[in-house]
């Protein structure tokens, strides 16, 4: 009797759009805010701007079926409160982080990823108006961190879109991606 035929248990590996040595630049706009900006403390009307972000990432090392990417993130967001009677409070935040993410190639055009960020948040508060005339503006610097998951889809070899959900500067970011 002949020996049984060998069966193959290997699975096909998908080559995704982000690999070791590749670089990506993301330009995003964020919705929501991790920081409350004093919301609800004073009444009046408020407005919080969307967060604008720019990030760069480079594929660093193959890690299992995916790729470890390392990069930097910079973002800006502001808010203002009109308290009436010409009294206003303005907030601004600038965040700079180093980030690491693990990318999993889902299809040749789409990769899913998740990661961590560590960095610095530089915030400022300014007061204006007759009620706050004795208060000075202030600024502060503090360490910050982030946790995020996302995905990038490339419509062409070098142009795509991304979306991220998480806890860094905003809860949701969407934008454009360029492969460099």
Number of helices: 0
What is the number of strand segments? 9
Task: Profile the largest sheet.
Answer: 8 strands, antiparallel, barrel
> How many independent structural domains?
1
Percent strand equals: over 45%
> Which structural class is indicated by helix and strand composition?
mainly beta
Strand order of the largest sheet: 1-3-4-5-6-7-8-9
Helix fraction bin: under 10%
Shape: elongated
Characterize the quaternary organization of these chains: single chain
Assigned CATH class: Mainly Beta
| Terminal residue distance | 58 Å
Rounded mean pLDDT is 86
Order of helices and strands: EEEEEEEEE
Radius of gyration: 22 Å
CATH topology: Porin
**Proper CATH architecture:** Beta Barrel
Low-pLDDT residue spans: none
Question: Could you characterize the architecture of this molecule?
Answer:
Strand 7 and strand 8 form a beta hairpin. 0% of the residues lie in helices and 65% in strands. An eight-stranded antiparallel barrel has the order 1-3-4-5-6-7-8-9. By secondary structure, the chain is mostly beta strands. It has one domain: Porin. The mean pLDDT is 86. The chain contains no helices and nine strands. It is elongated.
Characteristics:
9 strands, eight-stranded antiparallel β-barrel, single chain, 180 residues, mainly beta, elongated, Porin
How would you briefly describe this protein structure?
The chain has 180 residues and is an all-beta fold. The chain is built from no helices and 9 strands. Strands 1-3-4-5-6-7-8-9 form an 8-stranded antiparallel β-barrel.
């Amino acid at each position: 009797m002949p020996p049984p035929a060998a069966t193959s248990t290997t699975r096909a590996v998908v080559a995704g759009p982000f690999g070791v040595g590749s670089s990506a630049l993301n330009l995003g706009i964020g919705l929501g805010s991790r920081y409350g900006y004093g919301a609800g403390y004073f009444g009046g009307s408020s407005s919080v701007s969307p967060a604008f972000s720019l990030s760069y990432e480079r594929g660093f090392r193959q890690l299992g079926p995916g790729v470890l990417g390392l990069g930097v993130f910079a973002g800006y967001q502001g808010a203002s409160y009109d308290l009436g009677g010409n009294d206003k409070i303005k907030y601004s935040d600038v965040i700079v982080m180093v980030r690491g993410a693990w990318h999993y190639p889902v299809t040749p055009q789409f990769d899913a990823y998740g990661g961590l960020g560590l960095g610095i948040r530089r915030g400022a508060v300014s007061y204006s108006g007759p009620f706050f005339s004795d208060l000075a503006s202030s600024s502060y610097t503090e360490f910050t961190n982030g946790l995020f998951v996302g995905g990038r889809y490339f419509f062409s070899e070098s142009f795509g879109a991304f979306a991220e959900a998480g806890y860094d500067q905003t809860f949701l970011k969407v934008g454009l991606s360029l492969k460099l």
